[in-house]
Amino acid sequence: MHEALDCPASAVEAGLRLARLAYEASTTRVMVVRDAGRLVVGGAVYELRKGTEVELPRWLARLLAEEGVVEPLEQPITLNDIARAHFSAASARTVSELEQLPRDFYQQVSEYVRELDARVRREFDPALLDERSKAAQYTREILSKRVGMILLSLRSPTAMGELYSKLTLEEQVLLDVLTRALERWMKVMGELLEGSG
């Protein structure tokens, strides 16, 4: 069946894995709190002297933070940030009203939720469970609203162009896959109608 329309589900999964890898490879600023000397990773050299600010790939910064060598300088996303994005998404009635999210918004939310889960295991605080529940609910509603806008944009190349720059990397993956699947479907249907399908 026409190569299963080039398997959009696999394309989405691959695109989301690449989005995660891109996030992990992106850099973040940290403060070195314990001397660790020179560190060579993948050909890059990092001087880890106490009291210095260094830019590191996120995955490396996380490992070094777990070892007590560095502390992050960037503020992590909070429930208030997610609530603001939720309010904005819920208020948008058209593509032009949809607010641009940070490119790595969902990755930041994922880290926030993982950290909350770890805190729940350590602290057994019911308030943390409530916070996690709210974050998950807000994020599901943001996703639902924004996916709806993505679907609406498929009907209008102008809206699609306007929307694309407002999307996170994961949302861009979805829009790209849907666009290719729709174009492929239109091509196959056109061939069918012309008698060559």
Describe the structure.
The chain has 197 residues and is an alpha+beta fold. It has helices at 2-6, 8-25, 58-66, 79-91, 105-123, 126-153, 157-164, 169-193; strands at 27-32, 37-41, 44-48, 53-57, 70-72. It folds into 2 domains: 1-74, Ribosomal Protein L9, domain 1, CATH 3.40.5.50; 75-197, Methane Monooxygenase Hydroxylase, Chain G, domain 1 (Up-down Bundle), CATH 1.20.58. Helix 4 (79-91) packs parallel to helix 6 (126-153) and helix 5 (105-123) runs antiparallel to helix 6. The longest helix has 28 residues, at 126-153.
Strand percentage lies at 5-15%
CATH-derived topology of the largest domain? Methane Monooxygenase Hydroxylase, Chain G, domain 1
How does CATH name the architecture of the largest domain? Answer: Up-down Bundle
Mean pLDDT equals: 91
Question: How many domains?
Answer: 2
List the helices and strands and how they pair.
Elements: H1 2-6, H2 8-25, E1 27-32, E2 37-41, E3 44-48, E4 53-57, H3 58-66, E5 70-72, H4 79-91, H5 105-123, H6 126-153, H7 157-164, H8 169-193
Helix pairs in contact: 2-8, 4-6, 5-6, 6-7, 6-8
